[in-house]
Amino acid sequence: MPGHGAEFPEDCLAGKFRLPPSRMARDPRAHWQELATALEYGRAALRVGLWNSEELLIARYFTSANRLLEVGCGGGRVALGLLQRGYQDVTATDFSPAMVEVSRGVLEDARTGWGARVEQQDATALTYPDASFDGVIYAFNGLMCLPDAAHRARALRSIHRVLRPGGLFLGSGADREKGALAGHWARQADGEIPGDRWHETSTSPVFMHSSTAAETYAELHAAGFEVLTSPLSTELATESAEVRAFCGETRFYVARKVSGSGGPAL
User: Fold this and answer.
1) How many Cα atoms within 13 Å fall on the side-chain side of residue 131?
2) pLDDT for 21-38, tens place per residue?
3) Is residue 250, in this structure, part of any structural domain at all?
4) Tally of domains within the chain
5) Which of 1, 76, 219, 250 is 20 to 30 A from residue 209's alpha carbon, by CA?
6) What separation in angstroms does the CA of 34 have from each of 20, 55, 139?
7) Computed from CA positions of residues 241, 47, 30, 149, in that sequence, does the dihedral angle turn out positive or negative?
8) Which pTM does this prediction carry?
């Protein structure tokens, strides 16, 4: 994420933060609708690309023949990486018109026609028919940037609906309980919901929730998913300095659509 204090990597959402006087004083969606923010993510799509850990999980769980949906595509970083690696049936979406405009430009510059693969969609209310996709990707804390648990639940139910039976979800989020940055994420102001924080960036304040594995497992199970694996990015691969500066450390969640809500024990 762009421009976050010098205490932690520049772009990893682990920099200094300031909590608002009221939880309702700021709009958690506003940051993503700013053109300056969208341009930061468009530059990251070209500068950073897919992380080694992302590429490993994508190759492990998806094939080039799969029909894939990306929600919260930002500046097109993941969609561009997928298309460049031969995943041709990719639809990238974002609720923000600014993000859609920038990601269309990034993909179209990479190859004529790729820009048309970007559509404006709200992850909490996807309009695609039931069982449209083999896989859904919600990269780089995207689910955790929704305003609250109710919005996360709506997004997961919406994603569940558009996945085919047995389809896979791949998402990620900062872990406030385990990992190198857990102590930072666990810091909390009195009276705030655990994990909810506002962060200063180079463009505008951004809201993000940092979860625990148990919390996200419960949210996924409630939406009808079985969690297959949930490694920290650092457990999967060594990243370049560019990627480490961009994302720090995150926890991935790979989950399968099931009819019930059961899943493996933590």
Assistant:
1) 5
2) 333 357 888 999 999 999
3) yes
4) 1
5) 76
6) 19, 29, 19
7) negative
8) 0.86
- Strand 118-120 relative to strand 90-94, pairing: parallel
Q: What is the pLDDT of residues 73-92, one digit of tens each?
A: 999 999 999 999 999 999 99
| Residue 123 forms part of a structural domain | yes
Exposed/middle/buried for 184, CB within 10 Å: 0-12, 13-18, 19+? middle
How far apart (Å, rounded) are the C-alpha atoms in residues 137 and 158?
13
Nearest to 78 by CA among 97, 57, 101: 57
- Which pLDDT score, from 0 to 100, does residue 8 have? 31
Helix (H) or strand (E) holding 225: strand 225-229
Strands 206-209 and 133-138: unpaired
Which residue, among 176, 168, 141, 152, has the nearest Cα to 69 in the 3D structure?
Answer: 168
Report d(CA 171, CA 29) in Å as an integer. 19
